[in-house]
Write a structure and sequence with these properties.
The chain is an alpha+beta fold. The chain contains 10 helices and 12 strands. Helix 2 packs across helix 3 and helix 2 runs antiparallel to helix 4. The longest helix is centred in the N-terminal third of the chain and has 54 residues. It starts with a helix and ends with a strand. The structure holds adenosine-5'-diphosphate.
């Protein structure tokens, strides 16, 4: 029973292993190893075979030359036989020798005992045509390699030797090769698997982290960063950065949702109060007043919701922009004209310093909204008798629009926060506003692939710089 379960567990683990990258990497690595070894074996075997064969044949040819020289000295077969007999006494009878007349009939042959069964007469059927000619004759388990030459009197001389020695050497080579390759292969596979699973550990941790995030929805988990800066390390870093960003975005969304809820609660409560008061009164004038107030309040809420939707459209890239070349000097003059009245009331001088005919590329209505919001803030946050300057110029591939005021300025710690949705500084509470103007400005400028920045000194004034690409 337990054994059965063990086998089942093993099966499950092996099945899972088969789907891992480490397993596949090892398998490919193993295949490459086997292929490499096979190629190595094939070529070295070929080289070894041909070099031993060459050396064997050289030995035969050398012997053939000795006998030929002996015979050519006197053209006497007896002298040759004498030499052979001498050799035999010295036990150098390794070679098969056959001497035949010009029509290849055997005159004499010496066959060493191990090849006794070779029918020498068979060789009479193959008179040599080339010099030296090689014949291969089977001799039981051995194979004989025979070189034949014609002597100056057209007699035939043949010398041969067995290939058993060579085949033995090759068999030993094969054996040694397999005996070393198989353990090496096993070692390489194990090493490969170990290295692959070590290298893929951060990836597994990444998968774990993703799973935890998916199942628990918690984005605060981070993958441990390995000290090695490889591709997986980079992936882990990028992944953690992505989580940081998602975390930030989620927090931003939560915060703005909280803010919106909070900011809508006040006008909604006011609306309810108005309706309650109106219901308690029987005076038609009170009813009319309450309705007018409710209308104003709902207008205020609608404007806030519209702006919020515009911001999220611009931020997510779904805002429809019809970017066209436009005369910036004209547009700015139009907007400045619009605020002239409010400015004059506060004795604020609005100056525009824009070269005539200066062109920019933007969506006309959206850019008007951006500049109007900035100018509105400048006039709003500049005390009586102040100064607001609007200037612009083209620089390289961008149009730079600068709006400088001599207003109350922004505290350095507040500068990063003024772009947030619904953020209003304490200093600005006395002024009308939703705290959405700059968020919209920034989102629209970004949707134009542009940028916006601010420098400010509390009590002295602020300078907003918008840059828009010309193309
Ligand atoms: P608001 O409706 O409050 O003007 P904005 O998003 O336009 O909202 O601005 C956010 C905050 O940035 C303001 O509440 C104000 O504190 C600050 N601010 C914006 N423009 C200026 C300016 N020109 N001078 C000083 N403070 C400014």
């Amino acid at each position: 029973m337990t054994e059965n379960r063990f086998l089942q567990n093993l099966k499950v683990h092996l099945g899972r292993l088969r789907h891992t990258l480490g397993y596949r990497l090892t398998l490919w690595y193993g295949l490459a190893f086997v292929l490499g070894m096979a190629i190595l074996f094939f070529f070295s075997y070929l080289l070894l075979t041909s070099s031993i064969q060459q050396s064997d044949q050289e030995k035969i040819l050398l012997q053939l030359d000795v006998y030929r020289a002996e015979y050519e000295k006197s053209h006497s077969v007896t002298d040759l036989i004498r030499l052979l007999n001498r050799e035999q006494e010295e036990r150098q009878n390794l070679f098969l020798i056959r001497f035949a007349d010009p029509v290849n009939r055997t005159i004499f042959a010496r066959v060493p005992p191990q090849w006794r069964r070779v029918p020498v007469t068979l060789l009479e059927n193959y008179p040599p045509r080339t010099e030296p000619e090689w014949l291969t004759v089977s001799a039981g388990e051995d194979q004989l390699e025979i070189a034949s030459v014609r002597l100056s009197d057209f007699c035939v001389l043949q010398v041969g030797a067995g290939t058993a020695g060579r085949l033995n050497t090759l068999a030993t080579f094969r054996r040694v090769f397999w005996l070393t390759t198989i353990p090496m292969f096993a070692f390489a596979m194990l090493g490969g698997f170990f290295v692959a699973s070590r290298a893929l550990r951060p990836l597994r941790e990444l998968v774990e982290a993703v799973r935890t995030i998916i199942t628990t929805g918690k984005t605060d988990k981070r993958v441990p960063v390995s000290p090695v800066e490889d591709e997986i390390g980079e992936l882990v870093l990028d992944f953690n950065q992505m989580l940081d960003r998602i975390d930030g975005l989620l927090k931003g969304m939560r915060d703005s949702l909280d803010n919106v809820a909070h900011d809508l609660r006040t006008p909604m409560t006011r609306l309810r109060g108005m309706a309650e008061m109106a219901l308690q009164s029987n005076n038609p004038t009170d009813h009319r007043e309450a309705l007018a107030d409710a209308l104003e309040e709902s207008e205020h809420m609608l404007s806030m919701l519209r702006t919020l939707m515009d911001i999220s459209e611009a931020e997510t890239g779904t805002m429809k922009l019809s970017v066209q070349p436009l005369n910036l000097a004209e547009l700015v003059a139009e907007i400045a004209e619009l605020y002239q009245f409010v400015a004059e009331e506060k004795s604020i001088a609005i100056t525009t310093e824009i070269p005539e005919g200066l062109m920019a590329a933007a969506d006309r209505n959206r850019l008007r909204q951006v500049l109007a919001n900035l100018l509105d803030n400048a006039v709003k946050y500049t005390p009586e008798g102040g100064k607001v300057t609007l200037s612009a110029h083209n620089q390289g591939d961008s149009t730079i629009i600068t709006l400088r005021d001599s207003g109350i300025g922004i505290a350095p710690e507040e500068i990063p926060r003024i772009w947030e949705r619904l953020y209003r500084s304490d200093a600005s509470r006395s002024e009308r506003g939703l705290g959405l103007g700059l968020s919209l400005v920034k989102a629209v400028v970004k949707a134009h692939q542009g940028d916006i920045s601010v420098t400010s000194e509390p009590g002295k004034g602020s300078t907003f710089v918008v840059s828009l690409p010309l193309k």
